[in-house]
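Researcher: Go.
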Amino acid sequence: MKDWFKALFGYTAGNILSVLSFVFAAAVFYTVFWLYGVETEPVLYATLISAVILLIVFVLRFSSVYKKHKRLEKIKNDAEYAVLKLPDYEDPIKKDLADIAEKMSALKTDAETRMNRKYSDSADYFTLWAHQIKTPIAAMRLLLQTDCSPENDELEEQLFKIEQYVEMVLQYIRSDSISSDLEIKSYDLGGIVRAAVKKYRTQFLRKKTKIVVGNID
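Model: Structure:
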């Protein structure tokens, strides 16, 4: 109801010039008839009939405008998800503005579609690359493990870093859909820490870094 009164006030304010013009014209007729000594009752009667007709037109017109207002509100709320389709306007200026807005909306939607497609293609490409590169990395690790030497140990450490970079790429690609990969529950902190230490044990041993894990179970 509040929205209806607000729309009515706005529509009335927008047509106040027409209302004042009608009142002024009626006053001019009444004054001229009075100055010439002509009976003014017909003027008052005609003014009353005209006012009733104009009131009916006002109500019908406002009803149409209010429906368009509600439709535009719905479009405004859904503008992010749908192509803009405005109501038909009789006013040529409003019609031109509506056409421009619809065209801009269509261009925006098309640009978003192309951008999403391009991003999806890039994500698919990098995902495929990240998974495929794991095969030669695993093969290189097996070859290095067959011949233990200081040089191979250094190469294995660099290979481990490459694996981490590949994993970073995969994590970045998954970041847009991370909500679907989340599982909120209680985890064993000790198990997580021990798994991390085991994963990086080669680096710790090579650098002679001592790791002390307290009671975290």
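Model: The first helix runs from residue 2 to 14.
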